[in-house]
Structure formats: C-alpha cells, structure tokens
Amino acid sequence: MNTNFTTTPEQDVRAMDAICVNQSEKTHPLYYNLKYMAVGLIFGIIFVKSEVISWFRIQEMFHLQSFHMYGIIGSAIAVGMISIFLIKKLNIKTIYGEKISIADKKFNKGQIYGGLIFGLGWGVTGACPGPLFAQIGIGATVIGVTLLSAIAGTWVYGRFRDRLPH
C-alpha cells in the first residue's frame, strides 16, 4: 500500500480544524461539565454588568462616540496576547498534563471579507456571538433571530466553504 501522498498547505490547515488539537481523550460524567456552566454564568454576568451586551453601547462604538467598548475589546486582546505568549514561552500544559500546541495562522483575503460581514452584522444587530446568550438571558428575546441567523450563516459557510476565497 502506497502511503506517500502530498498535500497542499491549505489542506494541512483544513485538516487541523477537523478536530480539536488539544482535545482530551478522557471522558467524564455529565455533572463534570457543570463547572463550564458556572464559568458561562459568571461570564454572562460580567457581560451584563460591564454593558458589553448593550445595544446602545455597541452603537456608540460604531458611531465613535465612546471609548467604552474599545477599551474592553483592547483589554481582551492584550490579555489574549499575553496569555498566548506565556503559554508558548513557559511551555504551559493543560490541567491533564497534555502539551498545548497553537498552530501558526496565515493571513488571507477571505479574512477581510469575513471581518466585513461580521462587522456589518454586529453593527446592524447590536450583537456579536459572545453576548448573544447573555442578551437572551436578560430577556431580549428578539436576539433569538440574531442567534438563528448566526447559526444559518455558519451553516452557509460550511456548505460553500470550498468555493469561498481562503
């Protein structure tokens, strides 16, 4: 059997997102995942208290009338950059002792198109994927339409991914 075959760099990248590279092989009972629900609840409360889910705050951001959202987003980017740096520099492992591998990403023009579509949707709806559930949780049930649209958009992308510019 001939196992010598070549792949393109794009195929290599796509193969990487087929599974979670850092996914643990261990299985746990259902109650084990309650800690994730607790973190999600805390995250939602922080979103509500910091007004990240406020349609008015998002509109202020897009109209360049307030620094509030830019400060929060900038802080999140800084924390993410520092975290990734420390993970790579200190060779930090998961809580199960597995090595964390972070693949390098190559820039392509599809990211510009995706970012424009994402930003347009964010500006029109006043919601991005992170706070959708917190907005629904505070009673803004109309956001359910935005959630369904996000799910539909994800499906459309998956359906036509091979034909899109990457």
Computed Rg: 19 Å
Percent of sequence in beta strands: under 5%
| Rough outline | globular
Summed over residues and divided by their number, the pLDDT gives a mean of 82
Transmembrane segments: 36-56, 68-87, 112-132, 138-158
Keywords: Membrane, Transmembrane, Transmembrane helix
Structure description:
By secondary structure, the chain is mainly α. Helices cover 57% and strands 0% of the residues. The longest helix has 22 residues, at 68-89. It is globular, with a radius of gyration of 19 Å. The two termini are 33 Å apart. Residues 1-5 have low confidence and may be disordered.
Short synopsis of the structure:
By secondary structure, the protein is mostly helical.
Question: Mind sketching the topology for me?
Answer:
Layout lengths: L8 H8 L17 H16 L5 H8 L5 H22 L19 H17 L6 H6 L5 H18 L6
Based on the model shown, name its key terms:
166 residues; mainly alpha; 57% helix; disordered N terminus; transmembrane helix; membrane; DUF6691
